[in-house]
Amino acid sequence: MKVCNTANLFLFIYSDMEQLKIAIQKSGRLSEKSQELIAECDIKITQGKRKLIGISEDFPIKILFLRDDDIPQYVSDGVADIGIVGENEVLEKDKDVNLIKRLGFAKCRISLAIPDSVEYSGVEWFNNKCIATSYPHILQNFLDEKGVKATIEEISGSVEIAPSIGLADGIFDIVSSGSTLVSNRLKEVEIVAKSEAVIIANKNLNNDKTKLLDEILFRINTVQQSKGNKYILLNAPNDKIEDIIKILPGMKSPTVLPLYQEGWSSLHSVVHEKDFWKINDKLKELGAEGILVIPIEKMIV
Ligand code: PRP
Ligand code: ZN
Q: Which distant-in-sequence residues (6+ apart) come within 8 Å of 242 by Cβ?
């Protein structure tokens, strides 16, 4: 059953409930993907004129559009019930929240970088140096752990230009593709932490809100499970069906239906796209014809 068909029923069942307030990034590296994720859960959001709050007619939800740095605080205070935020902000702000789920997008590293012309001898290079960053808490923990004494210059943006203007010897910042470092003639010398988008939740959600969160997590899982998986249909002579099934990893067992043409069957299964390209030639060698590969929107397993 398609999830959106259940949306109205769901709203009816849960109509007495409070709304689940979800904080997402207003603009920046996570905002587009966070909104996409909500849309993939079949929750349509209408934004107000000032784009600070979004509401939905299909789900008891309120979206708060916030700066990513503020999200851990708002979730721990209960201003928002849950938040979609970079793990980097969760680590930095160190608030009392539950980390519910890693989402697999906005992957990056938080790294130390220095001018690429400078020779790097190891982490002790940073002794008595000045490091510019927007992540002083994560950096201080790392320096303490390594026994390095350095000055931290906290700045809120454009960290990467600090060495070239003489503000710092090195930087500690997010690295994703690495192009910001290259264009500022910096090199990554220590990866301190890895980060991706995560869902965090307030520690005192009531039962109704916990149920709403569970429903959202269920929808996210069905979308994520379908990612990369394709529905495959093919026709094959009956005497080859056994051999084809052997090379076709299905969800359980493939469906085999007789074709009008005697001695032939149609075979339906689910295959991961990367596996499909590995077995494509083999399928044809085994006599498969009319191979169709179709996207899957949601998978409930
Ligand atoms: C981060 C970071 C770098 C850039 C790195 O900035 O501060 O500038 O991303 O990404 P890259 O390795 O793909 O070049 P962000 O986009 O989060 O903006 P902000 O610095 O304004 O917060
Ligand atoms: Zn930011």
A: none
The residue whose CA has the least distance to atom 8 of ligand 1 is 180
Is the CB–ligand 1 distance for residue 147 below 6 Å? no
- Residue 163 token pair: 């060495």
Considering the entire predicted model, what is its pTM? 0.85
Distance CA(5)–CA(42), nearest Å, equals 9
**What's the CA gap between 272 and 241, in Å, rounded?**
19
Cα angle: 57, vertex 78, 28; to 5 degrees: 70
Phi, psi of 32 (to 5 degrees): -65, -50
Pocket test for ligand 1, best of 89, 112, 158, 174 (most atoms within 8 A of CB): 174
Chain segment 8-29, per-residue pLDDT in tens = 555 544 555 689 999 999 999 9
Residue 175 C-alpha to ligand 1 middle, in angstroms?
7
Q: Give the whole-angstrom CA distance, residue 245 versus residue 69.
A: 51
Euclidean distance between CA atoms 88 and 109, whole angstroms = 9
Q: Report pLDDT digits (tens) over 132-156.
A: 999 999 999 999 999 999 999 999 9
Question: Atom 21 of ligand 1 has which residue's CA nearest to it?
Answer: 157
Helix (H, G, I), strand (E, B) or coil at 196: coil
Residue with the two structure tokens 């299964």? 269
